[in-house]
Amino acid sequence: MSNVALAQALEMSCPIVITDFSRNTNDRKIFKSISKYTTPLTDASVQFEIESQNTPMVFNAEFAITIAGDKQLRISLDNPSGSGNQNSRRVYIDKFSLKSPDSSTVISLEGEDLITAGGVAVDHDGSTAGGTNNDNDVITWAFSSGYLEIPVSLVQPGIYQITIHAYGNTLSDGISPLLSASINNLAPSSGSGGEILIKNQLRELHTTFLGEELAIDSEELEASYQVFVTTWQKRWESDADFNVQASSEETCTALEGMTFNDDDLIDPQHMLATWSRMMLFFMTDYRFLHE
After folding, report:
1. What is the CATH number of domain 42-184?
2. Which of 112, 172, 220, 245 is the most exposed place for a label (fewest CB within 10 A)?
3. What are 206-221's pLDDT values in tens digits?
4. What is the pLDDT of residues 42-98, one digit of tens each?
5. CB 183 within 8 A of CB 154
6. Domain map of the chain by residue range?
């Protein structure tokens, strides 16, 4: 009996996660209050659709920061492949800046100066993501997968303003690149906004699958969160590609009557794979199996 239940959980855990995250937020059955881009480090995040090609456009957004301190500013390509064309999309970062609540500049940087200024550009396998690009004397940092990151020190809580000058390539799939900018904490258990959202989602899974009502500060919930963090960190350490099917022990084949497109399976923060493993964790708990 247990072997049958395990086989069913292995078959269903990943497709359940992909299906739910592919729905509009209001239509989701499980992950109603969290994004597939939210990680244990995420303190605040915004996303831009880079529709402009060949000429940089200005993208502005605000971050609400509740806890000041040393953090990381990360700029990620959220849909690095599509329609069967791996890494078909490309983003060109001309420059970016971050301003504090009092309008003083926290950082202002040309894209091509990222590395020399102490930043990194990281692809799924730890290699450098992209490089400098000169297009009609517009020098940028161009990348088709991964993220750019640089340390920032936020001296006060409040509303921070991010400005990014960028353009993109859609190539053959015709779908614009999605670029996210996030303020990340340095550790996964440091009270980030992402940690709180993940713990609340885990609480709901404990209720749904195990019939438990856990307090946000309970030892059992903290234990589940640590399993989540460890699973997520191991996924990054595995150098797996940014696709939920890459190096996954469970199948992620769409169930009968359903289909997944390439964008559904893209996993730029390795969060779909992590939630899939957590779904398997709950679906194989003896309390769920014997309900």
Report:
1. 2.60.120
2. 172
3. 999 999 999 999 999 9
4. 999 999 999 988 889 999 999 999 999 999 999 999 998 644 344 468 999 999 999
5. yes
6. 2-38+190-289, 42-184
